[in-house]
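Researcher: I'd like a candidate sequence for this fold, 154 residues long. If you have to choose between options at a position, lean toward the conservative one.
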């Protein structure tokens, strides 16, 4: 439901801000000025926790970061919370995490079936926008993770 609300917000935003720079798709307008986690916070009323990953922090991934990332995913999915992953130009939803295989499933909101190319050059085939990759590839190829918290925004 969150994706639907987010897209609806984008459609309204384009209509309500005709003087702003135009975007081709409603989802592009969502992140245009407020940032995706801010919009999701508006829609859910919940705060988010940001985990900066090596590509943004310019610090190598270590055991503590991997443990924090995996623990945050487990806690979020146990609590049915939204998790977003992004880089400098796009945001994905993390839709599942399998601790037994250490695999993460991502969803590209554009719902296209194509090859998703990561920073390190690795490509993953997506089907309907969904693709799965190892947790290590997520940590080493994206800028940040936003995990919805079980508390209201301040």
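Model: Candidate sequence:
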């Amino acid at each position: 439901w969150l994706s639907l609300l987010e897209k609806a917000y984008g459609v309204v935003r384009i209509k309500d801000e005709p003087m702003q720079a135009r975007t081709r798709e409603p989802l592009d307008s969502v992140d245009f000025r407020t940032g995706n986690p801010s919009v999701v916070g508006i829609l859910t009323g919940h705060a988010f926790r940001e985990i900066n990953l090596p590509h943004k922090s310019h610090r190598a991934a270590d055991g503590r970061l991997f443990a924090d990332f995996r623990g945050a995913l487990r806690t979020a999915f146990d609590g049915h919370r939204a998790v977003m992953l992004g880089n400098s130009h796009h945001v994905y939803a993390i839709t599942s995490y399998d601790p037994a295989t250490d695999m993460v499933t991502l969803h590209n909101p554009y719902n296209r079936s194509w090859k998703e190319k990561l920073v390190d050059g690795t490509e993953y085939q997506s089907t309907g926008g969904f693709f799965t990759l190892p947790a290590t590839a997520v940590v080493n190829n994206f800028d940040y993770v936003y995990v919805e918290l079980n508390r209201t925004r301040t």
